[in-house]
Prior knowledge:
Blueprint: E1 6-9, H1 12-32, E2 37-41, H2 48-60, E3 68-72, E4 74-80, E5 83-86, H3 95-108, E6 122-123, H4 131-139, E7 145-149, E8 171-174, H5 177-186, E9 199-202, H6 205-209, E10 213-218, H7 224-231, E11 250-256, H8 257-260
Parallel strand pairs: 1-11, 2-3, 2-7, 3-6, 7-10, 10-11
Antiparallel strand pairs: 4-5, 4-9, 8-9
Helix pairs in contact: 1-2, 2-3
Amino acid sequence: xxxxxxxxxxxxxxIGDYVAALLLxxxxxxxxxxxxxxxxxxxGRTPRPVFGAMAQRLADAPQDISHVELVMMDEYLVPxxxxxxxxxxxxxxxxxxYVRSEIAERLNETLPARCRLRDESVWxxxxxxxxxxxxxxxxxxxxxxxxxASGASDGHVAFNPPGSPRASRTRxxxxxxxTRRDNLQTFPAFGTVSRVPRHGISVGIDxxxxxxxxxxxxxxxxxxxxxxxxxxxxxYDAEWPATVIHECAVREILSxxxxxxxxxx
Length: 265
């Protein structure tokens, strides 16, 4: 059974507010010591309450986040003449579009220009040289905080499928059928699973585990299985990649009541 702390909150919105307060506090502490703050970010449904709560807190009490770097976890890839490249940034399922519209624009909306996230503060791994991403992270001092989410059906984290080695780092990954079906639920604009790209570029398990602090967010009844699998592990289990949370130095699992289930723990 896991030794990672589990905090059960009433709702996704309560989780969002809890993480927003934590993150903005960490960001300010870094700013006061003259340091950059590297925040590892997922996209999709799970982190939306967090980014919404951060935007509201910044509107209520503005603070300088110009030193924050958003280290994005992954992006879909499609074939081109030279191999594989990012999906077009204007596609509704593009992670580039997500970070622009659901993170950067929302956080920056009420802040003065000098306090905003900068365009160059959003990082993505380059499919032409995936290992360079880990080198870039290391050169910047490492990820301070990783916000994590788990696939409902197979426990994937970022695009890491079951079987991903503990030592894996940033790489191009063929997307599993389970991951593609989960992503269809996240982005119904795909229409059918056949339109979900078959490859992605993703940080690896070791990339995530190297963060100084992390939280794994699970909410909704559909995430009950993944929470159970995470809680019944005490270290990384390659058959359920979301168990990487147990490898992070400072860590916490955050669940709402629907994911936890009545009397589940």
